[in-house]
Amino acid sequence: MAKSLLLINGPNLNLLGTREPQIYGSTTLADVHTAAQKQTDDLGIKLHTFQSNHEGAIIDRIHEARGNCQFIIINPGGLTHTSVALRDALLGVEIPFIELHVSNVHAREAWRHHSYLSDKAVGVICGLGVFGYTAAIDFVAQKLGASKSAKL
Ligand SMILES: O=C1C[C@@](O)(C(=O)O)C[C@@H](O)[C@@H]1O
Predict the structure, then answer these.
(1) CB of 58 closer than 8 Å to CB of 10
(2) Which of 128, 70, 123 is nearest to 94 (CA)?
(3) Whose CA is nearest to atom 1 of ligand 1?
């Protein structure tokens, strides 16, 4: 299987860049995708991106990834704190995943401190702003044995 990565952004992440910029910054999701595409091209990794405000659509996309994606990076948005079904989908497809948050959820409201995913994630990145996406991709590249010389 070619080196492939699925980047999922959950509810309200389509508003990134205009949504509470004092918390999430001013970089848009389109900017994140553009940067991620260049980063993965340089690494020879096939990038798939998906954003939805709907739990079931995200679950369906995760199911579709079985057999054709080697890693998932997911910013689950608010589903982080509520969704057993999302946990079950990630466990069900047996694809390793990184949980990512733009903000430091542990410095926010207490109910944001709990995640239904973190204990099953390979790793959790939070509080690095959108650099978290860059860091997560670099980590995945290491795990997949991808290198900058292997341009797509
Ligand atoms: O929608 C989001 C964004 C978030 O996942 C983040 O990227 O910091 C943190 C969540 O608590 C919140 O509901």
Answers:
(1) yes
(2) 70
(3) 77
What pLDDT digit, counting tens, does each position of 111-124 carry?
999 999 999 999 99
Q: Is 105 in the pocket of ligand 1 (CB under 6 A)?
A: yes
Distance CA 49, CA 150 (A): 20
Question: What is the SS3 assignment for 19?
Answer: coil
The number of the ligand 1 atom at minimal distance from the alpha carbon of 100 is 7
CA angle 115, 58, 86 (to 5 degrees): 35
133 is catalytic: no
Cα 62 to the chain's mean position, in Å?
Answer: 12
Tally Cβ neighbours within 10 Å of residue 1: 8
Q: Where are the alpha helices (DSSP H) in 44-145?
A: 55-65, 84-93, 131-144
Q: Global pTM? A: 0.96
Cα–Cα distance for residue pair 7/37, rounded to 1 Å? 10
